[in-house]
Amino acid sequence: MPTRVFSSSRRTASGLLFTIGLAHFVLLAPVSSQAFATDPGRFGAMTCQQLWYVEQKTLAEGRVCLKSTRAKRAFSRADRCISSSEAILPKKTQDYLTQLRNAARSRSCAGY
């Protein structure tokens, strides 16, 4: 009898680990397959600092190599970059970054 309880517990733990692993995979999927954290409609209300952060985060999640020391420090725990070219990003992500950069330019943010 105790063996069945143990076996049942093992199956439950195994199922729980699978569920956690699946949730981890889904929640941490690359930028190309997830909704963006910030709605582009909100870009106009964001500060230059916030726009910079969202831009760098999007690049880091897309595994584009970050250029500035500040960005490298801010996202030092990001997955290893695979290219310095933004051309590796999906069109949807490139369009998102274009909208973000246009908003930064309209606010006269430095570096845009």
Quick summary:
The protein is mainly α. It is built from four helices and no strands. The chain has helices spanning 2-27, 48-61, 69-74, 91-106.
User: What's the pLDDT, averaged over the residues?
Assistant: 82
Radius of gyration: 20 Å
Largest sheet, described in full?
none
Tell me how many strands there are: 0
**Helix and strand sequence:** HHHH
Structure explained in plain terms:
By secondary structure, this protein is an all-alpha fold. Helix content is 55%, strand content 0%. This is YARHG domain-containing protein. It comes from Roseibium album.
Protein topology:
Elements: H1 2-27, H2 48-61, H3 69-74, H4 91-106
Helix pairs in contact: 2-4
Organism: Roseibium album
Protein name: YARHG domain-containing protein
Any descriptors?
112 residues, mainly alpha, 2 domains, 4 helices, 0% strand, globular, YARHG domain-containing protein
